[in-house]
Write a structure and sequence with these properties.
Helices cover 30% and strands 24% of the residues. It has 441 residues and is an alpha/beta fold. It has a single domain, classed as FAD/NAD(P)-binding domain, CATH 3.50.50.60. It has a nine-stranded mixed beta sheet, sandwiched between helices. Strands 2, 3, 9, 10, 11, 12, 18 and 19 form an eight-stranded mixed beta sheet that branches. Strands 4-8 form a two-stranded antiparallel ribbon. β18 and β19 form a beta hairpin. α2 runs parallel beside α5.
Amino acid sequence: MPDRDHRIFASDYKEEPYWWEAFRPQAIEAPALPRRTDVVVIGGGYAGLSTARALADGGIESVVVEADDFGSGASTRSGGAISAGLSIGKSFTGKTLAYEPDFVREVVGWSIAAYRALHQLVASEKIDCHLEQRGRFLGACAASHFDALRVRHDKLRAGGATDCHLVGREEQRAEIGSDYYHGGLVLETAGKLHPALFYGGLLAAVRRRNSITLAGQCRATRLDRSGDGWRVVTSAGEIAAKHVVVATNGYTGELTPHLQRRLVPVASHIIATEEIPRDLALRLSPKGRTFSETRRVLNYYRLSPDGKRVIFGGRARFTEVDGRQRARLLRRLLLQRFPELEDTRITHSWQGNVAFTYDALPHAGEVDGLHFVVGCNGSGVSMMPYLGNAMGQALAGRLRGRLPFADVPLPAIPLYSGKPWFLPAIGGAFRALDYFDERIR
């Protein structure tokens, strides 16, 4: 095994995000928690920071409590892909869900708005995070999947989406240096960024606003109603607040059992390769796109911002797994798509929790007086800042229109109490169905 590991892992291999080479989580501890504030935000990721930023711009004081260092969670652990689309019509378990056309158009509108708002946020706060729109290639993992993409393409075009086009298998080398797929769908309104640098820029923007108190290493342990407000008990003391916003996503726990029963934390695993020659990188990704797949157990990947490494992610397992084991599993999948990377070693492997909802949609709203922004479902880079900003504007009385998804009930998950006991079974079933589609059909 040591000899084999030497061929797979670089000598400087680390079990932490590659992104942390540019920005590491920040240990920000408040000198003393204020006894009282307008809003307590629980969770210091994209959603929580964006909520606080919008509150500050509306003249509202807030305290953001983060159980760990700021930036240690999923916000700096993703692949950094962004798009103007959301998955709609499939539940977390794969069940088909029927929606009215008007609702579908509304969801698409929110998704496009979130994508545009991300670009505006980066520009307005002058965040240097390698944001670029290079489009996305969605690869069909089986011939039948390409037929389904054809139907999806026709529906998108009929709905006015002119930014997408089909690519046959004989033409896909112009999009991706691989013959693995049976063609695919290109979505031009999609891009990528450096997620940790984006987070760092957002954190800096929040720190420039004096009405926000950041409290790292400060875990919220209890929420009690107190008159028309809340008493928030934390590991560093108590805070009285008029409102509480929960933005814990894939790290939601027993503090908020109503949300815990409606959010499934799924581990997403990612590896980064050592640097590869420029000509090879250009062959693998001729147009600098992000890549994803039609598999149920999907994979997603891209080049690093400098174009020198491959960042490859997916569900090596649906639960936590040993770092080297997840790296081996993901490398095997990577080589199926790009066999020429056989001699390329792994420098980083990591994981982060993605919050999935039963209806595969993000949610923002209020339940029993408690506000929340949750449910990344793999689209958190653009959607969580958008919904956090909308929540902050709503509480500050500055939101035009209504809060996106506020009228969409956050559904409970059958037979689920907050402990995802069923993930191995779902993972196994999905892998079996993928195998059937790709190898037997």
